[in-house]
Amino acid sequence: MDSLIPSIVIDHPNGSAMDACFTAFDKDGDGRLNLAEFTLICRALFRNDRGHIYDVPAERLEQIFSVFDTNDDGYIDRDEFKFCWNQWIKTIVRPVNAFLIVDVQNDFISGSLDISNCSAQQKGHEILEPVNNLLDTVDFDAVFYSLDWHPSDHVSFIDNVKMRPLDETSPIDADSAQVFDTVIFAGPPPMKQRLWPRHCVQDSWGAELHKDLKVMDNGIKVYKGTNPEVDSYSVFWDNKKLSDTTLNAQLKMKGTTDIYVCGLAYDVCVGATAVDALSVGYRTILIDDCCRGTDFKDIENTKEKVVSSHGVIVQSNEIKAMAEGRDRRPELGYKLAMELKNPDSVLSQRNGYRAGE
């Protein structure tokens, strides 16, 4: 039966791809799509480049269908399908991809905060080969490199712990604090802070991208952690969300739909960035073998957060087909549909369409 499912073609020879798609899946010819017919569209959409069809739970199919059945009559008519086609199907088949490489800097690989000295004992340099291979083989629409870029008096440095008063609720006092401890600085409001060795100080060798990381000529660098009073794990904004970086504005400007995230450290800056990308509304793909972290339990917690927010975790050898729209994951399709219900989502705003308009 699956061999009888029509293909979805974005470029139709007569220039009427949307109408051709609607007609092909309107099996009973009544000029509208019911849930069963829409399910066939999903079976045509959500498959990989080897023809394997991904299963979509019935409940999720109904939720996606309801996004485009804007008048709640149990059908998607041609006007409603226009929204579905332009904002959902075309994005799934032709995503706009950004590759975000997080903090692949000297200090995290062989410097003062070499992550191999943390409990997981993972080696940061091991991601260089698969990351470079992706840069060589996948035609991303944009490539971003984030850099921790701390002033010398940064709040996260263990040797600066006595520069600021601790809150009375801090579990550890300044004299007893050690690397990797968490203290609470006085507010307002009080602020939890994990203490790290001095690292990635602005304009130092430790803050430079590793020499073996390929840097694309059109790559965009994003600097974070520049405020001495607050740490910044995420590449989107600081830990207190007081200020953002340039990342989101540049992603919007490029019309980005999908973000591929990797780098160091898996359970700290990479994880925070992936979760924030999902919260903003981007379809987010975490590249497992292009990340290394500090703590196994925290790495697993990071993965759970990403998956529960409708992101996906894949290996680097899966990326090319996904970026080219030949391997289309239902989790990302569901994520997109849910974002189209939210007028504040970056994906909802992307082309000016709204559900129900």
Q: How would the blueprint of this fold be written?
A:
Layout: H1 17-25, E1 32-33, H2 35-45, H3 58-68, E2 76-77, H4 78-93, E3 97-102, H5 106-109, H6 128-137, E4 142-148, E5 182-185, E6 191-194, E7 220-224, H7 247-253, E8 258-264, H8 266-280, E9 283-292, H9 296-308, E10 312-314, H10 319-323, H11 330-339, H12 346-349
Parallel strand pairs: 3-4, 3-8, 4-7, 8-9, 9-10
Antiparallel strand pairs: 1-2, 5-6
Helix pairs in contact: 8-9
EC number: 3.5.1.19
InterPro entries: EF-hand-dom_pair, EF_Hand_1_Ca_BS, EF_hand_dom, Isochorismatase-like_dom, Isochorismatase-like_sf, Isochorismatase_Nicotinamidase
Family: Belongs to the isochorismatase family.
Helicity, as a percent range:
25-40%
> Strand content of the residues, in percent?
5-15%
Domains, number: 2
The SS-based structural class is: alpha/beta
Protein name: nicotinamidase
Pathway: Cofactor biosynthesis; nicotinate biosynthesis; nicotinate from nicotinamide: step 1/1
EC number: 3.5.1.19
Domain EF-hand: 13-48, 56-91
Please tell me about this protein's structure.
It is a single chain. The chain is built from twelve helices and ten strands. It is α/β, with parallel strands linked by helices and 357 residues long. α8 runs parallel beside α9. The longest helix is centred in the N-terminal third of the chain and has 16 residues, at 78-93.
